[in-house]
Amino acid sequence: MKPIETGIHAPITVQPKALTIMFSISRSTVTRLLNKMLLDEHYSKGVTRITRNLTLVNVELFKEYLFKQDLQGLKS
After folding, report:
1. How many of the other CB atoms lie within 10 Å of CB of 25?
2. Interatomic CA distance for residues 67 and 30, integer angstroms
3. DSSP helix/strand/coil, 60
4. Is pTM beyond 0.85 here?
5. Checking phi first, is residue 23 left (phi over 0); if not, alpha (psi -120 to 50) or beta?
6. Start-to-end C-alpha separation, the chain
7. For the segment 33-67, what is each residue's pLDDT rounded down to a tens digit?
8. C-beta separation of 61 from 44 below 8 A
9. Cα–Cα distance between 72 and 57 in angstroms, integer?
10. Cα–Cα distance, 76 to 18 (Å, whole number)
């Protein structure tokens, strides 16, 4: 499943399942990263829990957080 493209921009927010496809990572990894994002004041605004079963994630903030985690691992 490819992200929906309108010719101008990719989606701004998606459900976690779409992140597994977009970034080729497992659902458990997405869940772990989202839980960590919620603990970070800057990135928590990128995760919106509408209901217990519906969560929307800002793709750009998720990508930024993912790269930040990668860079932290390289600093060790």
Report:
1. 14
2. 14
3. helix
4. no
5. alpha
6. 35
7. 999 999 999 999 999 999 999 999 999 999 999 99
8. no
9. 22
10. 31
Q: How far is CA 72 from CA 20, 22, 37, 38, in A?
A: 22, 22, 14, 18
Q: Are 39 and 31 in contact (CB under 8 A)?
A: no
* Token pair belonging to 4: 């929906």
Residue 3 has pLDDT above 90, yes or no: no
Between the alpha carbon of residue 10 and those of residues 6, 22, 26, the distances in Å are 7, 11, 21
Q: Which strands make up the sheet holding 13-14, listed edge to edge?
A: 13-14, 54-58, 47-51
Encoded amino acid at 47, one letter: V
